[in-house]
Design brief:
The protein is built from 14 helices and 6 strands. It is α/β, with parallel strands linked by helices. The chain folds into 2 domains: 73-239, P-loop containing nucleotide triphosphate hydrolases (Rossmann fold), CATH 3.40.50; 269-351, Conserved Hypothetical Protein Ylqf, Chain: A, domain 2 (Orthogonal Bundle), CATH 1.10.1580.10. α5 (130-142) links the parallel β2 and β3 (146-149). It binds guanosine-5'-triphosphate and magnesium ion. Residues 123-124, 126-127, 151-153, 192, 194-200, 213-215, 217-220, 241-242 line the site of guanosine-5'-triphosphate.
Amino acid sequence: MANTNKKNSGNIKGKRERYSNKQNQNKSKNKNNKRNYDVKAQRMESKRIRRERKPVEDNSKSENSQYIQWFPGHMTKTKRKIQSDLKLVDAVAEIIDARIPVSSRNPDLTELIGNKPRVILMNKCDLADPSSTKKWKEYFKSCGIRAIELDCKSGVGINNFVSATKDVLSDKIAVWQSKGMVNRSLRVMIVGIPNVGKSTFINRISKTSKAKTEDRPGVTRGNQWFTLSSGGVNIDLLDTPGVLWPRFDDRVTGEMLAFTGAVKDDVTDSEMLALRLIEYFKESPPKIFCERFDLTPENISSMPPLEILESVAKKRGMLISGGEPDTLRASVMLLDEFRSAKLGRLTLELP
Ligand SMILES: Nc1nc2c(ncn2[C@@H]2O[C@H](COP(=O)(O)OP(=O)(O)OP(=O)(O)O)[C@@H](O)[C@H]2O)c(=O)[nH]1
Ligand SMILES: [Mg+2]
């Protein structure tokens, strides 16, 4: 801890300068970065997802780089396995994070899934802003995509899964019935980015704890079948490891995935990440954030993010030798509080 404090104190001035340089650099990039997420047909989705995340200049080699990337070797293997197992399933359930419905959709998966009937499960709704979730649900509906809201922690919305899956498989089910296959199981592959709740969903719907879950990305390491019965229907669910894609199309996507815990914390700089989160808060300061740290919306819009972070550290008594605010500890705490919705139920991306 002493080492961390020393390092922290020595770096604060440098960080301040680096951060303000980076902010200036990014101002113009952010304009170009504005995403226009307007998918009209499911067929062309993956291409659109890529196109709509406009690529920005690669700054990954610059000193102030926060271009987050995480694509360990096992994800390449997982993609291959998903591709080969797709022929075994009738439908795919793509689990996304209700707080970041754009960034939590892996364009590579969308491409792999192709025309396979698919349901989108907007999970972690308990952490997202309810009115934004409603807008997303309407948005997906307008695109002809079946999407349901889920909170796998409490089980809210779980009962809608079977009816949604039956809906997208209605043609196939009619064919099976005409052939007298009345009790045929529905085979569904569960896919999504890491840590989004795929295994938790399987445990919740099967009322067991057979699938391993943990609050960190990369827990499930291989495809695994689970057989269950729900709402009088036999279902075979295939749990898969979370997959990201080899190169995020822009800086924002990496940040969103890091804010929500889909990317390993080891590959990110907590302070830079917390400062970026504070920047997002500037647009519309969350009420609970203001209350928790004795800040007003006016403070938040006028103060530089680093000053806000310092005031958060002071408010929590997080100081290093010499009375300087411990911005590293405050950053870790802030990200943790965002992830657990202690700063309120916040959705970072709107349709
Ligand atoms: N608040 C909240 N937490 C959830 C929800 N669903 C899952 N979680 C938590 O999210 C964390 C990750 O869940 P997992 O089920 O392991 O996620 P996964 O998608 O299987 O992750 P990988 O196997 O690593 O790809 C766990 O701590 C879960 O308790 C939800 O709806 N709400
Ligand atoms: Mg898992």
